[in-house]
Amino acid sequence: MAKIVSIEVLKVDLKPKVVRTDAVQSFECQETPMVRIRDADGVVGTGYSYTIGTGGSSVIKLIDDHLAPMLLGREAGEVEKIWRDMFYRVHATTVGAITSIAMAAIDTALWDLRGRKAKLPLHIVAGGAKDNIPLYYTEGGWLHIEQAQLVEEALKAKEAGFGGTKLKVGKPHVGEDVRRIAAVREAVGNDWDVMTDANQGLSLDEAIRRARCFEPYDIAWFEEPIHADDVLAHQRLCASTTVPIAVGESMYSLSQFKDYLQSGACSIVQTDVGRIGGITPWLKVAHMAEAFNVPVCPHFLMEIHVALCCAVPNSRWLEFIPQLDLVTHTGMRVENGQAIPSSEPGLGIDWDWDKLQDHTVHRKLHS
Question: Which of 113, 145, 303, 358 is the most exposed place for a label (fewest CB within 10 A)?
């Protein structure tokens, strides 16, 4: 092992490649906290997380003032120990988005460093369960997109080899959602998956009503139908419908997933490495879900999640939302609708540091 000798903290702001709207919000900007950790052998690991437009400066402040300084002089290979020490260093502000997003940027950097030191890619270092993972398409399903374009985008995705498409739901009346789903289902046929996502925009009663209306269209899942904090409401919803219920995008701790799984309050786990606090807790959630025979279909950050999906046996889908193309030399490898993890050591993300500089709004070196 080798000690950490410097930590560089950056914030990179990336504009969405397309307009992204859902039932409760718009994706304004990918504020991207980045951390580069150098060890005494000169090896550098790079990690990152994200917001969708707010809170990024607070994440950076937390890293700069409280987390980065405590890493200097630590053994870089002690990833689990460092994660626990970070957790208790900021215990008064956990569990919450700002803290988890900050920890995720550091933890993913440490895993990148670990892989680079071992000369192994992340999907092997973290488990090595699979060689590829099926993709579904989200960029053609945003809530503002008109029905005709929804159908067109779904057909293009099917022709390109994707295994399904996700439609945002949460229109003012259930009939509007149903018409959009029905149009896409009729166009793509019954041998292709259609996912739905309400982004926590519904009450329990309305979620039960809409799930009942969605059932005839063989929906692959109903994602974040109601507020993520309400386990009992999700339990009631699961008991009322045959539509699989997906949760996890807006959960920030291992214990939240434990409560959902123990209560039978979800059918699919969508833990997000950028929101759960990094790769270290992500793997714990995935393995816990495996014990409950529940699949993992992570949210966003496909460039990291492709490796994590291939690290664990119970992954089912990877969400295709390209975002790092703006600041990388090469994108994620896709073949016949399957995402292929990089064979390069570490995370396998081929950063273009010249392009990153154009989007960087904060940079600080701790040494």
Answer: 358
Segment 162-194, tens digit of pLDDT: 999 999 999 999 999 999 999 999 999 999 999
Q: pLDDT at position 9, please?
A: 98
The catalytically annotated residue of 123, 299, 305, 366 is 299
Of residues 79 and 19, more confidence is placed in 79
Which of 11, 117, 168, 305 is the catalytic position? 168
CA 233 remoteness from chain centre: 23
CA–CA separation, 176 and 115 (whole Å): 48
Structure tokens, 141? 């399903």
Beta bridge partners of 346: 121
DSSP 63-91: IIIIIHHHHTTSBTT-HHHHHHHHHHHTG
- Residue 309: how many CA atoms within 13 Å on its side-chain side? 31
Could you tell me the pTM of the whole model? 0.96
Could you tell me which residues are beta bridge partners of residue 200?
none
Q: Can you tell me the distance from the alpha carbon of 8 to that of 52, in angstroms, rounded to the nearest whole number? A: 22
Average pLDDT, the chain: 96
**Residues paired with 10 in a beta bridge:** 34, 363
* DSSP string across 209-228: HHHHHHGGG--SEEES-S-T
Among this protein's residues, is 61 annotated catalytic? no
Please indicate whether residue 168 is annotated as part of the active site: yes
Antiparallel, parallel or unpaired: β 193-197 and 221-223 = parallel
CB 274 within 8 A of CB 50: yes
The rounded distance, in Å, linking the Cα atoms of 74 and 61 is 21
Pair of tokens at residue 323: 């975002």
The Cα–Cα gap between 5 and 285 comes to 31
